[in-house]
Design brief:
Layout: H1 7-26, H2 38-43, H3 50-61, H4 64-77, H5 83-109, H6 114-122, H7 125-156, H8 168-184, H9 187-215, H10 218-232, H11 245-259, H12 263-270, H13 275-284, H14 286-296, H15 298-304, H16 315-323, H17 326-364, H18 370-394, H19 401-411, H20 415-419, H21 429-448, E1 456-459, E2 463-466, H22 467-485
Antiparallel strand pairs: 1-2
Amino acid sequence: MMDHVNWTATIVFFVFFALVTVLGFVAAKWKEGDLSDINEWGLGGRRFGAWVSWFLIGGDLYTAYTVIAVPALVYAVGAYGFFALAYTIVIYPFLFIAFPRLWRVTHRNGYITAGDFVLGRYGNKWLELAVCFTGILATMPYIALQLVGMEKVIQALGFQGTGLMQHLPLTVAFVILALYTYSSGLRAPAMIAFVKDAMIYVFVIAAIVIIPYQLGGYGKVFEAADAVYKAKGGPTGLLLQPGQIMPFITLAFGSALALFLYPHSMTGILSANGPDAIKRNAIALPAYSLVLGLIGLMGFMAHAAGIKVTNPQDVVPQLFLKMFPDWFAGFCFAAIAIGALVPAAVMSIGAANTFTRNFWKPFVEPDATPQREAVIAKIVSLVVKAGALVVILFIPTQFALDFQLLGGLWMIQCFPSIIFGLYTRWFSGTALLIGWAAGMILGTWLAAGPTAWVPVHWVGDWFVAYNGVTALVVNIVVATVLSVFIKSTAPDLTAAADYADA
């Protein structure tokens, strides 16, 4: 396992990894609060201003998925891989309009999760449970995506093996992550996000300047990539093929609608100290989208550099090993690994909050105190991380990006219950629950495919669409039709003033 270790890169990697580990434990004293209270452990006491929120939400959304999975898809298929850039542009007007309103409602009523809001809005505990179940289910593959990115850079350092030994370094990193998340709660990823983002910006700037310079300029990069795609044939290339346009649009649109519904995204937003902090972030966060576009270009650079891999997820690590000195490759690998730690921590916290508030308390222990809720949430955060490891071991996918698309397919089915509920109570909770079930069943059935996971399908004879969007349309139609006949009789447990001036 140790015969081919690049020790220079490894030492640099572990120095930075040790730094963020220390920060993770020290974070318990930052913005000090009672971490035995779920509001403090799981939301940081809702005290993060615009600056901290910018790093936390950005670190939560721009992850190992960004650095490993996006260039991998661009390397494999070309322009189609840039749908990730499109959806991160679409999402921010949506964030600016809807989520300050959601923050106001949740803050005034003491809500911690989307399920809390759904129960308060519709008075339907089964719809609350559905939102809870969906959030946890969708989070598992998303955490797994982060761990895939971490494992790829560890393997690139030279740590190879078979069987259980193959996953030993990742397991060690997982245990460290679990310990400081358990200890410090949301404060840990919030503090580490500062280091993570600074490192990501350094290596991205270095990559987009130095690598093209060494390869003869961007013109040479695009020429080399174009030649590879033409030789490969099929739906690949520097430009979208006609048959890719609707899948591209629906993948971007569906992913955008799902992104801020995830428990981890909701956790990052609700930890802000006010709606103005969210609005400022919606204005500033597109800076990360610029970086995402530049990262995607690394897939083209790999072709120009002559990188040949059997697994597209190995592209970025191999590119850095070839184009940079070992010490800087180690720095870049540390940035990618830390870029996996931050979102994995927030995701496990968000899922734990959701389980505790929307399953454990209403169905198992209704009289649980905030302190008891914090204990349960801490334990569940460990279980969620273990579940993500199981996803890696037992769900085969061609691209790590599939994990994100699979989670998005499920998460988008909560869109009507959460977002529609911010603006109208016309929909019945029962109708929304049945619509959710229809969307979940249809989307999962489509995704299963005849032999393996498939992200898109033909819709009639008209066009090809992302399974999540197809299922969402059915979900909304069912909920709308049933709401005509099934009227909500539950009292609105939120005050009308909660929605004013949002």
